[in-house]
Amino acid sequence: VASRDTNVSPKEAYDVIAERAIPPAGVACPRALDLGAGAGVSTQLLWLNGFRSIVAVDPSRVAWDANVGELPQGSGVTFTQNSDDGYIEGRPADAPLFDMVVVNFAINADKALDLARTMLAPGGQLLAPVNTQQNYWFRQEYRLMDSSGAILWQVESSSGWQITFQPD
User: Fold this and answer.
1) Distance between CA 128 and CA 35 in Å, rounded?
2) Pairing between β-strand 53-58 and β-strand 31-35 as defined by DSSP bridges
3) Does residue 16 come out as left (phi exceeding 0), alpha (psi in the -120 to 50 range) or beta?
4) Which of 42, 33, 38, 46 is nearest to 64 (CA)?
5) Which of 76, 79, 86, 92 is deepest in the core (most CB within 10 A)?
6) Which residues of the chain have pLDDT under 50?
């Protein structure tokens, strides 16, 4: 179910998450950060892929409440109503890092690099649609990056579908 409230990503974006957002081997309770969680589709995909500690963040809770609602205590999934920048800026300095960060909106390459370097645990990965031109918001490629910012995988996302952009 898509969310009009959060300008849901196309099905192809969810296919990339299902295929590429995989927990690292040897991590007992892999942690994921789901930025732009919306109606919870990407959060569910992370859970199905084996992440058992997930922080879902979205500026609006309308879609989350309509499609997910309250989760049982101890589920390992928490929802935080906040912007991505607000969440990151408000995190304590000693907060645990993530094994996977999924971004559900297009970001600039500089922001992707910063997220990879500051939010990922060693061996962690960031999966995000990244704007390929600094001031042109309608052309992205999906990138899978490691905690150093190295691109491990990429595919152009502008052939027939787009990610909702966020000027940042």
Assistant:
1) 10
2) parallel
3) alpha
4) 38
5) 79
6) 1-8, 160, 165-168
Residue 155 phi, psi (nearest 5): -150, 140
DSSP for residue 92:
-
| pLDDT given at position 9 | 58
Query: For residues 57 and 34, is the Cβ–Cβ distance under 8 A?
Result: yes
User: Quick one: pLDDT at residue 50?
Assistant: 97
> Which residue in 26, 15, 29 sits closest to 75, CA to CA?
29
Q: What end-to-end distance do the CA atoms of the chain give, in Å?
A: 27
Encoded tokens for 166: 């966020």
What is this structure's pTM?
0.89
* Cα separation values, 22 from 19, 62, 80, 100, 131, Å: 7, 28, 22, 8, 23
Structure tokens at 149: 């910012």
| pLDDT the model gives residue 7 | 45
Residue 51 in contact with residue 30, Cβ under 8 Å?
A: yes
CB 98 within 8 A of CB 70: no
- Decide if 108 contacts 42 (C-beta within 8 A): no
> Rounded to the nearest 5°, which phi and psi values hold at 16?
-65, -45
Decide the pairing of beta strands 120-133 and 98-103: parallel
pLDDT, position 163: 52
